[in-house]
Amino acid sequence: MSEKAPLIPVAAPAERYSRVQRCPKGRVIGKVLAAAAAAGILYHGMLYVGNPGVVDQAELCLSPACVHAASELLYNLSPNYKELDPCDNFEELVCGGWRDRHDLRSDQGDAFTGTIMSEQSHLLLRHILEAPYPKYSQHSYFSPMQLMASKKSADEANFDKIKAVYEACLNEDQIKSLGVKPLRDVTEEIKKTYSVAISELSTNHDLKDTILLLAKYGITSLIGIDTGADDTDPDTVVVSVSAPYSFGLPSKERYEDKKLVENYRDVAVDVLAMLYPGQDVDAFGKIIDLERRLAAASPDSEDRGDVTKYYNPMLIDEAAAIAPEIELKALIHDLAPAESDVERVIVMAPKYLKELSIILAATDREVLQSYFIWKAVQSLSSYVEADAVKPYKRFRNVLAGKDPDSAPERWRSCVAHVDDTLGWILSRFFVEKAFSADAKQFGDTIVTDIKTEFIKKLNSAEWMDKNTTKLAIQKVHNIVQKIGYPTKSPDIMNPDTLVDYYKSVNISSDSFFQNQLVANRFAIDLEWSALGKPVDRDQWGMTVPTVNAYYNPPGQEIVFPAGIMQRPVFDVEAPAYMSYGAFGSVAGHELSHAFDSTGRHYDERGNYSNWWSNATVKAFEEKADCFVKQYANFTVPGPNGKPLHVNGRLTLGENIADAGGLSASFQAWRRRATEKPNKDLPGLEHFTHDQLFFVTYSNWWCGKSTKDTAMNRVYTDPHAPKWARVIGTMANSREFRESFQCKVKEPTCQLW
Known about the structure:
Elements: E1 7-8, E2 21-22, H1 26-39, E3 46-47, E4 55-56, H2 64-76, H3 90-101, E5 102-103, E6 110-112, H4 113-129, H5 149-170, H6 172-178, H7 181-193, H8 206-216, E7 224-230, E8 233-242, H9 258-275, H10 281-297, H11 301-304, H12 307-310, E9 313-315, H13 316-320, H14 328-335, E10 344-347, H15 350-361, H16 365-380, H17 390-399, H18 410-434, H19 437-460, H20 466-478, E11 480-484, H21 495-501, H22 512-528, E12 550-552, E13 557-561, H23 576-592, H24 614-632, E14 635-637, E15 643-645, H25 652-675, H26 689-699, E16 703-706, H27 707-716, H28 722-731, H29 734-739
Parallel strand pairs: 8-10, 11-13
Antiparallel strand pairs: 1-16, 2-5, 3-4, 6-16, 7-8, 9-10, 12-13, 14-15
Keywords: Hydrolase, Metal-binding, Metalloprotease, Protease, Zinc
GO molecular function: metal ion binding; metalloendopeptidase activity
Cofactor: Zn(2+)
């Protein structure tokens, strides 16, 4: 278990990433500069290998941005890329050098290009947090809020607040001196709320009260209870009840690994025995059996995001009757604002609730109490430094294929902590340093261009009937694009607005653990305060430094934080085929989600409804089945050395979006290139501009993963492994096959 797992070319989805160690690349830059010097200002007479006999008269770009972009691509290409057949394994051609020159740190389970981008952003944020407040004269030319003297005091107060959070996290001596006490304070509260012995002090509501207590600390225990837009009425906030997304091990399938389960059981017993020495350890061990039963009763991964299966509206009394032990109606009443009257809920997993009732009836109070304590340990152990929680931290590392005692550098964890705690204040300072008005305008242009091309695709989709096509086109027109950062809910450029937004987040400069509890409670209160009000369509689901993007079906919006609009994915000053190839394909991917296996169920107003004709649905399902079978052929090493197949149904929506997004962005770039020709990049004479579009796209997915992390993601991640996203998407791209003159031009699978 302590050995470092072998590396395979797989990477994680863009969540929160760790920095990848990089080798010096002066040799590569030298090659670029030499090629540029030899070519002169104009790149005349260049013969492209990919398009023999065609002379390109494009101008050579020698700006710093172009030299940097070219060096990045050359740095990542396989050392023998000229000898590889791009039609055979394009991922190796584009990413072979990336893997040669990048190693995972001991604290990393995976990494890819997005990891580096995220950590570059985190490094910038570290510099912001460790520097004094920037005085008025030090603000950049693009300070979106254009600070005025009257706003300065509020802005500086906000800055002091994020610094206090950061410094409390950095104060490891203080954290160690407190030891396990902050966690024990929480677990003692749990023990008092759910006592083992039924006595005069016990109530008939202690199970409900304990679930509520944990929920207010941001801890999910037996059920998940959340609020959000109603799928069939997207302007109304509704309560949803679900099975927890995690029970302890990464997925329900991992509970079938007997050796892993026994190791996990030993860890739970060790941790809880140190927290409560002398207490009966039998109950500690039995909580893993409880977790296993709960996990077995929970929905399969591919069903959790399927609106046709999870959307089960019920009157609250009807829902509460399914599992009466948890007192659902009273639980929701205690979570909701006093003036709210919840009459209807969405039960996302009715079968789980029925099984939960049976499981609770068969579980001793000692085991349930230990289970609640264990949930607190799992959720909050990251915020204490004590011997009692070390076995669990080691286990989590081993489970991901990391070195058991590894941990990120402290500043990395603390930057992430500030983003989790006061993310919109941090976002305000990030925007000033890392974004520009030109970048926002260029991003809007790319997304608008892709909308135009996607409408063309809808019009040419012969398998859709005319009325469905008409409604689908209207849906594209209605999709809201959010670029860069929010200016409402909250307006991050208004310091007074941010002061008011976070007024209930009382930060302690010497209590890292307490700051996290305060942040958790703030997030819970904010979520539940939405009940009884119209859905706030101005809210964002990601902070600005986040290297990611998303499509929100009920909200009819595609959202791109400034964090993903950075090099090498996005660059106003580089040739457009790079930004369209990488960021444009991400934008097209999110737009394509509006018509994938999930998004197609939502109409032009964001309502969950049957707006496709039966014939169109049947044609879609036939085409989608091709993607299911194609990706199910990809494998990673699984348990006991046997191949573990990618779940083609779990990853269906993402795979459809990859194919549609790439094609729409390529067509958008080609149309723009006829209006404003792109320049050549020095040292990349082997490729045409068309080909560099696909090189840049694939460069975004270059990555590595440990075996264990790759396996866990196959069970839980709706995205295919990164290398499969290159190979599969290229196989599904007619434009790629034509650009590289592949023998077979017909895509393996095609929807749009």
